[in-house]
């Protein structure tokens, strides 16, 4: 019961915000229309049930005029049911896409807000494969929530409607057994209730493991798909290393988990299907067995038998909603659990950025320096990495940061960028200062080359001539005619070309502080020197802060800072040292 209450509370928390959002009028209207049509369909089925009594009585009594009349009545009822079903499906799908669009926009906004997506990876939270959460799980949640919700409402209304009919038929066709007649009020209703309770208990007992199995299946499928994408994106390196055999083994191992879990689902589904199908087939004959003695005793006509069988089936089906929808309910609960984990992971990542024991990045009103006060950068597991106190990155003073591999140079840049929360202390950045970080492997979105270069700005933010100019300046003149071509540029260009393209982006955006994290490491020294001189010429107001291992970089920086071992961490050494340009 606690699990059910928890699931209902989670569904309410995930679903209700849409119906309170800016799209609430359309959402509520569509939902009300879908519910109203469902109620109308239940009413139509009640009329059809009463029609069966009259129709089969007319057949038994060979009443031609009654037969013709009831045939016309049926055509009207059938036409109404068809129209209602068509528009219910249409409006349901309309509500689904509006609801899904709102949820997708909401999740994308929260996931991509203020580097939450990055902190979620750092935490190693349970929200694996966010792409699946935003695509598959949102779609499944909306679809299943409407299907189950409307189905449950239909079952309740159907039960209320047909219980009255079945109770009246119980009085008209008293129970005959062992040669005697027993007057048991509503015995057909009690029979349907006992039958449904029996089916529900056994269904839960047989099918309960499916919830966890479905959860695991989705996770294994997503992991397998993610690793296939990884192979595609790194195909060159795999080919150069002749790693196809190793990748085949890794992929086969992950697919093996998919297959193994699927076999478990098959086994459990086989047992559940065997019971539910037997249960459904027995439900066809069970009401006939109950009322047949009264029919053969001439207490009721054939129409009453048919009406009783259908009314009993409707009541039994309504009471057995849990049985018939168990497979869908199991998958739905797994989807709810995954979305709940995704929301909690986003909330945790967001909280991490503002926690009291995290690195504080603040805007300073005075001065144009980046000031590190009592800064201690830690790894996610709490291990100290870098300490710095009273260290300043001064404007117009290019700085080179060096140190052994693994000292945390790139992590220091991440902390300054405000995306690394682990640690303590503060980083004061001049108000309205524009910072840009260029890593060793820059990111370019798939699409037109111009849009990839000016990212994250809109393509229209810079003129095509300006973009061509910087392409020529960084040594990529051959790409100038391709500004409007759509490609996967990280895959099409060499790492050296990507680094040139990253510097072209910096020239366009002209940040106040430009942090280069080995952003020219794949270029030869002569090309690297030309590009540093280009930045100095084109961006005289930009302060360059570089990470690098080449001694030739010293010539392009006025200041040299080294990360050196200091006990259990690394510390910035000689923050005031000057390097005279050659």
Description:
The structure is a single chain. This protein has 18 helices and 15 strands. With 582 residues, the chain is of the alpha/beta class. Strands 3, 4, 5, 6, 7, 8, 9, 12, 13, 14 and 15 form an 11-stranded mixed sheet that branches. A two-stranded antiparallel ribbon has the order 1-2. It has a two-stranded antiparallel sheet with strand order 10-11. Helix 18 links the parallel strand 12 and strand 13. Helix 1 packs across helix 12, helix 2 runs antiparallel to helix 10 and helix 9 packs antiparallel against helix 10. The radius of gyration is 35 Å and the shape is elongated.
What's this entry about, in short?
62% of the residues lie in helices and 12% in strands.
List the helices and strands and how they pair.
Blueprint: H1 2-15, H2 24-60, H3 64-111, H4 116-123, H5 130-172, E1 175-177, E2 180-182, H6 187-207, H7 210-233, H8 235-240, H9 244-296, H10 302-319, H11 321-324, H12 326-354, E3 360-364, E4 370-378, E5 384-388, E6 391-393, E7 399-402, H13 409-417, E8 423-430, E9 435-438, E10 447-448, H14 449-454, H15 464-473, E11 486-487, H16 489-492, H17 495-509, E12 513-517, H18 525-538, E13 543-547, E14 559-566, E15 569-573
Parallel strand pairs: 3-8, 5-15, 7-13, 7-14, 9-12, 12-13
Antiparallel strand pairs: 1-2, 4-5, 4-6, 4-8, 10-11, 14-15
């Amino acid at each position: 019961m606690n699990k059910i209450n928890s699931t209902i509370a989670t569904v309410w928390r995930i679903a209700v915000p849409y119906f309170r959002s800016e799209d609430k009028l359309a959402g509520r209207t569509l939902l009300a229309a879908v519910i109203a049509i469902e109620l109308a369909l239940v009413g139509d089925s009640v009329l059809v049930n009463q029609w069966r009594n009259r129709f089969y009585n007319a057949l038994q009594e060979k009443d031609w005029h009654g037969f013709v009349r009831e045939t016309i009545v049926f055509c009207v009822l059938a036409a109404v049911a068809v129209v209602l079903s068509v528009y219910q499906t249409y409006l349901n799908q309309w509500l689904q896409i509006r609801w899904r669009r709102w949820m997708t926009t909401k999740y994308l906004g929260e996931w991509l807000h203020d580097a939450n997506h990055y902190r979620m990876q750092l935490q190693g939270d349970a929200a694996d494969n966010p792409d699946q959460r935003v695509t598959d799980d949102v779609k499944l949640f909306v679809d299943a929530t409407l299907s189950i919700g409307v189905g449950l409402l239909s079952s309740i209304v159907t039960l209320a409607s047909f219980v009255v009919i079945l109770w009246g038929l119980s009085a008209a066709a008293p129970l005959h057994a062992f040669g005697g007649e027993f007057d048991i009020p509503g015995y057909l209703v009690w029979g349907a209730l006992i039958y449904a309770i029996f089916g529900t208990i056994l269904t839960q007992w047989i099918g309960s493991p499916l919830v966890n199995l479905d959860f695991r299946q989705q996770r294994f499928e997503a992991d397998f798909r993610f690793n296939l994408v990884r192979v595609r994106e790194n195909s060159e390196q795999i080919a150069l290393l002749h790693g196809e055999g190793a990748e085949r083994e890794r992929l086969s191992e992950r697919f093996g988990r998919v297959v193994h879990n699927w076999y478990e689902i098959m086994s459990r589904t086989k047992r559940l299907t065997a019971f539910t199908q037997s249960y459904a087939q027995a439900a066809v004959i069970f009401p006939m067995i109950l009322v047949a003695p009264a029919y053969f005793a001439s207490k009721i006509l054939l129409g009453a038998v048919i009406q009783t069988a259908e009314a009993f089936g409707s009541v039994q089906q309504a009471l057995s909603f849990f049985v018939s929808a168990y497979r869908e309910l199991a998958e739905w609960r797994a989807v709810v659990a995954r979305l709940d984990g995704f929301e909690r992971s986003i909330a945790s990542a967001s909280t991490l950025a503002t926690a009291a024991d995290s690195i504080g990045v603040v805007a300073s009103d005075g001065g144009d320096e980046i000031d590190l006060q009592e800064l201690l950068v830690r790894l996610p597991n709490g291990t100290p990495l870098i300490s710095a106190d009273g260290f300043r990155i001064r404007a117009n003073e290019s700085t080179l940061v060096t140190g052994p591999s693994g000292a945390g140079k790139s992590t220091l840049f991440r902390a300054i960028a405000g995306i690394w929360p682990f640690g303590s202390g503060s980083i004061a950045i001049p108000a309205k200062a524009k910072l840009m970080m260029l890593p060793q492997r820059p990111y370019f979105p798939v699409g037109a080359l111009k849009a990839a270069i000016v990212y994250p700005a809109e393509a229209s933010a810079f003129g095509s001539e300006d973009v061509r100019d910087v392409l020529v300046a960084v040594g990529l003149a051959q790409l100038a005619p391709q500004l409007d071509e759509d490609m996967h540029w990280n895959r099409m260009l060499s790492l050296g070309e990507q680094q040139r393209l990253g510097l072209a982006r910096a020239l366009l955006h002209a940040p106040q502080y430009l942090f280069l994290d080995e952003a020219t490491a794949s270029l030869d020294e002569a090309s690297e020197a030309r590009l540093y001189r280009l930045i100095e010429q084109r961006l005289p107001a930009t302060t360059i802060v570089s990470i690098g291992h080449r001694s030739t970089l010293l010539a392009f920086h006025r200041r040299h800072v080294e990360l050196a071992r200091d006990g259990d961490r690394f510390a910035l050494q000689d923050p005031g040292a000057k390097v005279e340009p050659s």
